[in-house]
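REQUEST ID: PR-0412
SUBMITTED BY: lab tech R.K.
PRIORITY: routine
TASK: structure prediction, single protein chain
INPUT:
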Amino acid sequence: MANRLDGRRLWSGIWRRSHPYSRATGRAGGGPMTAVEVTPADLRRQEIISKAAALFDEVGYGSTSMDSIARAMEMAKPTLYHYFRSKDEILSSIHEEFIDLLIAQHEAHQAAGLRPGEAIQEHVADILSLMDTHHGHVRVFFEHYRELPVSRRAEIDHKRSAYFEFVGRMVRDGIASGEFRDLNPTITTMAIFGMANWTYQWYDPSGSLDSRTIAESFWDLLQRGMLSGEDAR
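STATUS: complete
OUTPUT:
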């Protein structure tokens, strides 16, 4: 489970989204992920993003400076500025990497032709598995939206809204096919995200419950509710 959303494995797709014309394809970004030539500089940028996300998680965004990021990376501050112009730019990159990981997994589930119920369970598992592999990203994404530069919010908002719509569409498709009861799709979608997104507040990756078990328990609760026997409706 810890490798479900390995950042290095998916980095080429994320990098392509951030660089509309790659050397490998020449096509505009935003379509299906394709293999690209990932340079050492690209990987170094990702290392900085990961280290900064961990620092933001440990000591807080406001208490983390470019100096502290440079020290954690064991690089000179001017070298850090070669990769990122500001802490805000790193913050934006963390947000974008997080949502791009989820969108990449959505595309994989879509290609697999999963039924709505199966797909929703996998989407919940995707969010929870990031709490194993990208815990700092998760906290940044949910707690530091307001610190995003205004110039970057529109793009990230678009991706966040698109991902919400992906799950909302699965709920509506499940209702239309008869797999789900005739529920309010908006409330149901909000409930799914409410369960999944809040888990980082209490989930302990070293605890007795792994992220997949929690995702399956969430899906069982969503699917069958809490009542048993004749009381179940």
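NOTES: DSSP finds ten helices and no strands in the chain.
REVIEWED BY: pending
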